[in-house]
Amino acid sequence: MYVGQLKTDSDGHDGSIKYILFGDGAGTIFVMNEYSGKISVLKKLDREEKPFYTLRAQAINRVTGVPIEAESEFVIKVLDVNDNEPRFINEPYIAEVLEMSPKGTYVTQVTATDKDDPTNGNNARLVYSILQGQPQFSIEIKSGIIRVASQIDRETKDQYQVIVQAKDMIGDVGALSATTTVVINVLDVNDNAPKFQQKIYEMSIIESAIVGEIVGTVLADDIDIGRNAEMTYSIEERGDYNMFDISTDSITQEGIIRLKKLVDFESRSRRYTIQVKAENKYNPELFDIATIRVYVLDVDEPPVFLEREYFMKVLESAPISSFVGSVTAKDPDSADTIIRYGILHNTHSKSFDIYPNNGSIFTIKTLDREEDLWHNITVSATEAKTPAYISYVHVYVRVMDVNDNAPQLQNVPEIYVCGKSRIEEPVYTVTAIDKDEPQLSHSFSFMQPFEDSTNANFTITDNGATILTAQDGYSYQDNPLFYLTVIISDNGIPSLSSTSTLTIKVCDCGIDNNTESCGKGGFFFNFMNSAAVIAISIFILLILVLSLLVHVRCQKKNNIMSEKGEDLKENIVKYDDEGGGEEDTEAFDITGLKQHTVMRERKPRRKIRTDIQSMYRLSLGLGPDVAIFKEFLAEKLEEANTDTSVLPLDYLHCYAFEGSCSPCGSLSSLSLTETNVSEIDPYY
After folding, report:
1. In terms of pTM, does the model score above 0.70?
2. DSSP output for 212-250
3. For the segment 137-196, what is each residue's pLDDT rounded down to a tens digit?
4. Which whole-number Å values give the CA distances from 419 to 107, 527, 565, in the listed order?
5. Complete domains list, the chain, with CATH
6. pLDDT tens digits for 310-337?
7. Which of 358, 364, 368 is nearest to 377 (CA)?
8. In the chain, what are the helix, strand and coil shares in percent, each to the nearest 5?
């Protein structure tokens, strides 16, 4: 394509001038005719890639190559054509708008760009329009701002996809365009009231239902969403509103109706009517009301006792088969049903039984109030036709008291009377107990038997039950014990009495004439008087003196024996010689013991064995002239000489005491000669 031409004034059109092209794109994009200077383009140009090119051209002599003129610089500008369509930026477009927003409310803005030259005509001038999304939304042509065009309702449609178009060349013929989709979410507004699915609900419940049992559920719909759809249920204070209660399930938004009071098919209306209100939790002005009818269904119920529990009385003196009381039960379903009664036997019910036809309770054994005051009985009632239906009731039977226990003395300790007591002094006040109830035996009378009424020792008051002295002074030596017979009577009808005998001991009581010390000293102090104390004191003193004399004498004897013991320790020698047999008279001769004592010099102390020391201690009690000791030595000597059944090797001669003043001097003088020792066979 021809672009333009460069020509010098010196060109004579004779072909002597040559045109040369230099610069940006020379030879590749642009070429120049070297004879005419015409410039042509070799390929398509893109203004958006390069809007202009700077080139140089020169005319030279074709033959000599000498420039005819200086270089000339020129610019080739690429003119824009509308060859680029608009493009939207910041996609995707997502917007939100509240339902019921007024007209003209801003929603969002879209933006498109065009690569064409904005300065060259209208190639890059864009306009916006909505292809889809009217009449709810509109768009500003130049800015691309989307606004609410009419009222929108989320409950009708909660999302819109608005298609927006952008055109260049101000939308003229031949303009290029592009489209984008704008997602508009409609936000909820709390503008809808709850609506019950039904205006009238019918429910039923059996008459045996317990309080709190679920009767049914209701549900009101709210086309709002989220927290705007939360609601609460309540029962309007009309009709039978106090029979039922309703609560709201926060998860399912259901109204749960529960039984508030027990219902009875036979007692009253078999249908209940209530009105339930469902209101928006955050806007109480948005609500709806529905009517609920609850029907009570009949069930076969067990018998019902006329009282929840029964209290009866019976005298403990009542004979067997005595009537105690009766219970009554009825069938709530039918008045003609025959009821059978029974007793659940346990530990207490073994004393009673019941007539199965009329519910009369009677005794089957004698009763004792003092043993069991109350009896707890469980009575059953059963339908004769349907034994599976059974009811129970507790019957409490109180055993009434009769005066069948005589009074008895209570906790009577040891009673003492002072020897120096004066007449009509109080000694002790006795008390009595009665197992019967206090209402029948609240007071007692005390008296002595008629035959003892002339007793001159003690008397007893009737009401105060105080024992009084009947004489001046009591002697322990003459009579240490007194016995008082007391008759105790109650005021019951008939009156009962018992007889008890009290033992009264005579006590010295000391200087202050108080009996408190009598019991603390026990028997010893009760019978101890001043003369006995003096006699015992003298006896103890004599024992002490005698003990002192014995002790002094023993000390002297011990000193003598200790001196003798020292001498004995030095003369005790143990001989382990086995001897040469019975015929060896040289090894040991006992005849030396019969000689007179020979005094020896004191020798160094030898080591004494413990067994010899113990024998020494035993020998301290015997002197050398004691006949028993001499006989002992003679017997042992005779036994050693005459016993042929015991070998000499097995026999041990051990002497613990040689005696003082022995004529032979010492046993140590007995020795063996060397010849005798050598003759002894060590293996014998």
Report:
1. no
2. T-EEEEEEEE-SS-GGGG-EEEEE-SSSSGGGEEEEE-T
3. 999 999 999 999 999 999 899 999 999 999 998 888 888 999 999 999 999 999 899 999
4. 125, 11, 64
5. 2-77 (2.60.40.60), 87-187 (2.60.40.60), 195-297 (2.60.40.60), 304-400 (2.60.40.60), 408-528 (2.60.40.60), 559-679 (no CATH)
6. 999 999 888 999 999 999 998 877 767 8
7. 364
8. 15, 35, 50
